[in-house]
Write a structure and sequence with these properties.
- With about 350 residues, this protein is α+β, with helices and mostly antiparallel strands.
- The protein has 12 helices and 9 strands.
- It has a 9-stranded mixed beta sheet.
- A hairpin with a 3-residue loop joins β8 and β9 (about 315-320).
- α7 packs antiparallel against α8 and α10 crosses α11.
- The radius of gyration is 22 Å and the shape is globular.
- The termini are far apart.
- This is Nucleotidyltransferase.
Amino acid sequence: MNTALLYRLLDTDPADGPAELFHRARAGRHLPHLVLSALARDGVRMGQPARAELRRARDRAAHYARLAAELARSTGVRAIRGLPLAGLYPAGLLRPLDTLDLVAPDQAALWQAVIRLVTDHPVEHIDVSLLGDRPHHTAVTVHWPAEDPLADPWYRVHLSTAALPGNGSTVPVRPYLVADQHVECLIALAEARLRCPDDPPCPVTVLDVAGLTGRPFEPAETAAVLAAYRLAPEAAGLLDHAADHLPLGPLAAVRAALAPELGPERRRRAGAAAHRRLVTRHGTLLRRTVIRHAWDESRLLTPAPDTPLLLTPVADYLLTPTPVTPVTPTLRTAALKALHAWDAAVC
């Protein structure tokens, strides 16, 4: 995992120099931070603006790490995906962290963590969605401005009661993620392939695999765990792509052990394709509220068939089937009227 690999992944001729590599990295929102950290490790000259951008990116990553540790102690949520993968990178090389992903053991822990975030940070947006019907899983994403809100990506913390959400049809929700941390990281990388199965993995994903190649994988056991989580095809495809760019080390044996798991999983998915898709409902914000500290879960209200409401400890929402479903002024007015009626009833 070095600058030479970055030149290859970003399709840049090393003869064109570090400035061209950095220019190519600008095509991705967080790739510049990774490239800057690699160039800084190599002692490449850079000016004050580049050093300041790298400093802010390092501060962001450090803040995420502190935040995850504090929330784990106080609420029981824990970090998955990005932050654990960042810990596999060599010293000084900064893995891009767009989002701090946290999984909560239940709704109470999730909302306790959200309340802490809203209390301690200048949160400007709170997105909520429900996965499934009865019972459902809850996902919340909070956003607040970066130190430089124009130049840097905003802080983004995603919390969910489902560790692995699946693809809504052939791969189900798997609420729990329980394995050795390096195996969990491989599972998370495979899960991400469900969202974009036809796109090649991004350079950061290849570097994530590079970070895993030094870990002690037990091939048969790892393949069995990936199969149990319904991710054998995604893991195999990911490792095949990574093998084009770097030696897989112990992951080569994992890839070989996955081979007999691919057919059964594909047949299972073919049989599951005709089943009803899992419903996801998205919250359209109606109002932020004074924090309801006494609440340990959200509440669903249906004052009318077309006005499903979700009341949470931090805000109230109108539920829609997609994030872009238009909410007409008439529907918003009806939803707010129902909320005011609820307010009057509980006072």
